[in-house]
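Morning!

This is the sequence you dropped in the shared folder:
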Amino acid sequence: MTALASVVIPAHDEARVLTRTLAALLPDDKDRLEVVVVANGCRDDTAAVARGYGHGVRVVEIAQASKIAALNAGDRAAIAFPRVYLDADIELPGAAAVALAQRLELGDALVASPTLRLDLDGSTPWVRAYYRIWQLSTFRQNGHIGSGVYAVSRDGRERWGHFPDVIGDDRFVQGRFAPHERATLPDHAFVVRPPRTLGALVRRGARIAAGNRQLRAIGLAGQVPSNANSARKLLGRVAPHPSLWLPFAVYAGVQWRTGRLAARKLAASSATARAMLWDRDETSRA
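The structure's back. Tokens below.
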């Protein structure tokens, strides 16, 4: 049977969580999805875990520990379109992956994601407060693509060649498409486990902020709202609701701190410092 879609999963030392990811993706739709796991620079059993699923999973191993290199290697190995790009720690049900492919085959949208569902179990009250406001942001409200999974049609994938060497591949991809070219599936969700502690949230946020600044600096931000306009709209959503004022203070504080850390990271130019840009949250991988 010809696969309805290819799913590319870049995985660097993800043996702990890859089983969970593949179990969600594969049980009912093994014959309808081509899954390519790209183990990049791994020092653990990521490749062995992926091979353990046998039918439906292809494993590509590369020496370089790089998500971008893994995405490009996965593209070279994958065959089918639409193409789904999935982080190794994200739970995407197989039915949702198939629904993404079917939605893109309609032709009116070129990129799509399921609805994001946050699993905040175990998160501190400060982290929960932050995400109350984050859910109201323009980024989330205006055709949000990414946060761990996005799918593109064949025509959509022609918007760029190789993935460029950037920090934020999902924000880069979202910027290739105008809001009317994006689709979100209301009846299908994927699960994201955010950082559990405020410190981990700040470190992760600094990586994201550095990625966004990098894209703007090199002219690859594409069609995304300006920071000033986004802030005004968010304030307009929050101001009429006093119950949101304290969470907004938490959100604003985190944004300020992540901005400072992002600037510091980007100012560093050594290979060692660049590797620090890819700080990974371990609190959500337990």
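Headline: The chain has twelve helices and seven strands.

More detail when I'm at my desk.
O.
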